[in-house]
Amino acid sequence: MSEPREDTKSVCPLCAVGCSVRYDDTSGRARGWPGAPVNADGELCPKGIAAFDVFDDEKRLTQPLVRRDGDLEAVSWTDAYDRIEREFWRIVEERGPDALAFLGAPHCTNEENYLFQKLARSLGTNNVDNRARLCHDSTVSAMEGRLGSGGMTNSLADLAETGAFLIIGSNPADQQPVAFNSYMRPAVNDDAHLIHIDPRANATTRLADTHIAPRPGTDELVVALFVKTILDEGLVDEGFVADRTEGFEAFAASVREVEFADLAARADVDAEAVRAAARAFGGAERAAVVTGTGIEGDGPDDTATADALLNLLLLTGNLGKRGAGMNLFRGLNNEQGACDAGALPHRLPGGRPVTERAAREQVADVWGIEPPSEPGPTELDLVRAFGREIRGAFVLGENPAVTKLDRQTVARGLDTLDFLLVQDVTSTETTAHADVVLPAGIWSEKSGTVTNLDRQVQRMRALESPPGAARGDFEILCALGERLAGDGFEYDSPEEVFAELTAVNPQYAGMNYEAIGTESQRWPFPDGANEGTDVLHRGEFMTGERRAPFVPIPTAEPADEGTGELVLLTGSRSGDVATTTMGSEVGTADDTLAIHPTDADARGVADGERVVVESADGHIEVIAQRSRSVRQGTVFVHAGVADPLLGAGRTRIRIA
Ligand code: SF4
Prior knowledge:
The structure is a single chain. The protein is α/β, with parallel strands linked by helices. The protein is about 30% helix and about 15% strand. It has 24 helices and 26 strands. It has a 7-stranded mixed sheet. The chain is globular, with a radius of gyration of 24 Å. Bound molecules: iron/sulfur cluster. Iron/sulfur cluster binds near residues 15, 17, 18 and 45.
């Protein structure tokens, strides 16, 4: 593999690892190259290799569409923009800006997400969100509250130095395969201990020294068992606890009060296996937690498992140093960047609360207009309010008609809007309800930056042009900004927008688009520094404090006993090709439901039977597959199929 020309280099859009890719003329597939920022040996997973294959050009939207007399008709860009301007302003004048909703996309670049939230806030509303928030709500909430940031505390490169991994609620071997194989597997092959806590055995489990499959909803109790073992056996990092933590005595006293055997029984785990795993974690010089959506609680306030993991890391001195930390492995390619750019209803660019006056004033200094101070509703609540408080919506590369809540409910909501604008690359279930559809660009037609799971900002480059009259998202958002908000959207390039983002986002201050080049810059990137920050929370936490608090260990009973409900686990496999960019799902998704034979028998479900699965938010039809790979009390469904079932936090389902 030789180094390709700079203008042919881009970033894989298919997961948050952020591997570098280019188009290979010979094979017609994606390839990497040696020396890339993340996939340094040029490696790609099967999904990444197919990154250029997943879109069928025949299905592309190539002309703006406007609904007239019930039908969508092709029109000029000017006609489409005229209609959007008229309808948005009518809603703002009649109902106020909070009657609008802006649903953004973690598939879009930092600059596109920045423009999207700037447009919403310039019109006077914080009603802007993106689906990244659904995925890690409670974990990010716990990390922000105690550490001051929800960002991955360490870098992927750090993990090669780890002596013990605790992977919980995450399956990186399948879902972030290049990160797992390039950074974690070598450490394990070099004798690092790998503990996998997951109700379902999967590809990550195959490399594990210990697999613990607790009763659903009891992850926090298993982590509490780790903590109790470390306290009982003198494995506490006393220097770190004395210097960098607070509340230790009360915390230790609360741990002493609980019985090890009682916790183990409630979690239904082998006490001795857990004790041995805890010794391996507590005895390692560098121990890291790697986690994902599987530790999410019942909403943003249910932070029990994330809090228990932070206790464990504080107790063992595994924050603020290499090879350690709380490493949140995100899924979608620009989840981190969409949040960094401020596409959230409660956070401005850089993660500062909209309620913080100083943060709003800093933004106002650059924008010339102050963002509203009242946080907006979450994406799910915005969708629920369609046709009631929300009268108009701008949907950017999302497909809420099939990916949010119950399909019929969302379809009804979309129909009751006074005006729906959808910007996407193909016709979808959502464009079928739209009043205006704008044809946008796919990932390989985009220039701009994206931020991967370990906070590296890299540049994507447009490798081709959109077909027909379609335009890139950046160009469309600039034009809509000028039409709807007036001043403040006259940008010639993503580079200009990135420069503005670095002025309003303190984490990105000091970064430079040109200097990123074909490398990466990692936030926080202090102004004047030569490089970004690999390890967060050295010296002081991002709260600005030297110490982080312990919180009490959980004592609640698991909530699923006796309800007849099963806990839904979701994920994908490294060979899956299910997502392109802009939120449109194409390709393959496995529509089977893995269910433990005991649970299947209790519900009279036969192997291969087609069943309807319901949650509080929606229902799907899948084929039952009896399997002992899932723990009793849980079921597994492919993420691309399970989406209508998912709300915020842990999802419980019933088989109808
Ligand atoms: Fe693309 Fe993720 Fe695979 Fe890397 S690991 S090639 S970013 S899908």
